[in-house]
Design goal:
heterodimer; A: alpha+beta; Four Helix Bundle (Hemerythrin (Met), subunit A); 2 domains; B: about 140 residues; mainly alpha
Chain lengths: ~280, ~140
């Protein structure tokens, strides 16, 4: 009887038409791995919702803050370095993705020390990314005074003459910062004057209001994914170090599953990087 | 995956790292070129701005493909699994592009309405109703 069953399975392996008739998994993936894929798919829907809101609002605004102007500062007092800091952040995520691939490979070889080593490197990469994001947010909130509903990055819809804070002029379509400054002990917004070609002088208002909310919610939601990814990586790293997955003898499948999630976080960053910083 | 040796698969991973790093660097350089940071004045050529945008989008999609197929091992999964995950994703990308188009249409519509509101009517021939031609309903009733 037992030999009969084995023979039947061997026959089925060569007959794909039978894959959905039951008693075996047609996708040849474990339940956990399959569900991780579908969770990632549902997560992709959430991020797509955010990106749709971003794209629709950006394209429906006459002007939008220029990203290479908004994101041009880096730590240690570096200015006028457009997009350099976010490029470093991207590299951190890519490198941590690669170390994750190495951890999964070592898992397939049942090499416990290798898994723990490469997972620890992945965690360091994730923490580095979170640290960079914390600095970026601090800079935007504390230095540029950007909030969820205030966008200090002015931009211009009409051609004309624009005066900056030093009395110089700049072109329409450029972006600049409106800073808070102290007036009689109180912080006040300092909008810049602009002159239309008619000679009439007016004051430049803040940039499109949705920019701050979109930035903080999209990068914040992604950062939250990185954070929870780091927490799960840490848990699974400790489990792996304790020898839990050795006993399971399934090639460290748990590491593979968290690896899928971690690559997804990198994947989302590819698109956040594209729409928010590059375009 | 099972067909290649351990050393080869490690080599493949580091090759992937190099590839992703180079593609990201190229993306940033192309983006800065389109914004006029590398050659000043380049941002005034509309065709160049569109071209750099297109190049960046294509490279990003290539990066996404590489991460899914090599790092997430989608290449080695059963075709049914790959299709069940990737087909909805394709529809999603279509939705994003469609809504970009939609946002652009909102802007154009808003500008059209503004333009129409500010339009002055040409009445040189006096064809429009003057005040004395307007009937007031109370008078008729």
């Amino acid at each position: 009887m037992a030999t009969d069953t084995v023979m039947e399975h061997e026959v089925d392996k060569h007959d794909d038409g039978n894959a959905w008739s039951g008693a075996k998994s047609p996708f040849k993936a474990s339940y956990g791995k399959l569900m991780m894929w579908y969770f990632l798919l549902s997560d992709a829907f959430t991020f797509a919702g955010f990106l749709i809101a971003y794209g629709a609002l950006r394209f429906s605004s006459p002007t939008w803050p220029v990203p290479d102007f908004v994101f041009q500062t880096a730590p240690f007092g570096i200015h006028d370095a457009p997009l350099i800091f976010v490029t470093i952040m991207s590299f951190l995520l890519i490198i941590s993705s690669v170390t994750m691939v190495r951890a999964v490979q070592e898992g397939h070889r049942e090499n416990k020390n290798g898994v723990v080593f490469w997972m620890l490197l992945t965690i360091v990469g994730g923490l580095g990314f979170l640290g960079c994001q914390a600095w970026e947010w601090t800079n935007l909130i504390a230095t540029e005074h950007m909030t969820v509903n205030t966008n200090p990055f002015g931009s211009h819809a009409y051609a004309g003459e624009y005066l900056d804070d030093k009395g110089g002029t700049f072109e329409a379509g450029d972006s600049y910062l409106i800073h808070k400054h102290e007036v009689n002990g109180e912080m006040e917004w300092d909008p810049r004057p602009l002159r239309y070609e008619t000679g009439e002088e007016t004051v430049e208002q803040f940039g499109p209001k949705a920019f701050g909310a979109l930035f903080f919610f999209i990068t914040g939601f992604h950062g939250f994914h990185v954070f929870s990814g780091v927490v799960f990586l840490l848990i699974i790293c400790i489990n792996a170090a304790s020898g839990l997955y050795v006993a399971r003898k399934n090639g460290y499948e748990m590491v593979e599953k968290i690896g899928l999630y971690w690559h997804f976080v990198d994947l989302v960053w590819v698109f956040v990087f594209l729409v928010f910083y590059l375009l | 995956m099972a067909n290649i040796s351990y050393e080869e698969s490690i080599k493949k991973v580091y090759w992937g790292l190099t590839l992703l790093a180079i593609v990201t660097l190229v993306e940033v350089i192309v983006s800065l070129l389109g914004k006029g940071h590398i050659i000043s004045g380049a941002e005034n050529y509309t065709w160049l701005v569109y071209l750099t945008g297109l190049v960046i989008i294509v490279l990003s999609i290539y990066k996404a493909y590489f991460i899914i197929y090599e790092f997430m091992h989608m290449r080695y999964e059963v075709k049914g699994l790959a299709v069940s995950v990737l087909l909805p994703t394709m529809l999603l990308i279509w939705a994003i592009i469609a809504f970009f188009q939609e946002g652009d249409s909102w802007k154009n519509r808003r500008e059209l309405i503004k333009e129409k509101n500010e339009e002055k009517v040409d009445d040189s021939q006096g064809m429009l109703n003057q005040n004395n031609d307007v009937f007031i309903i109370e008078q008729i009733g």
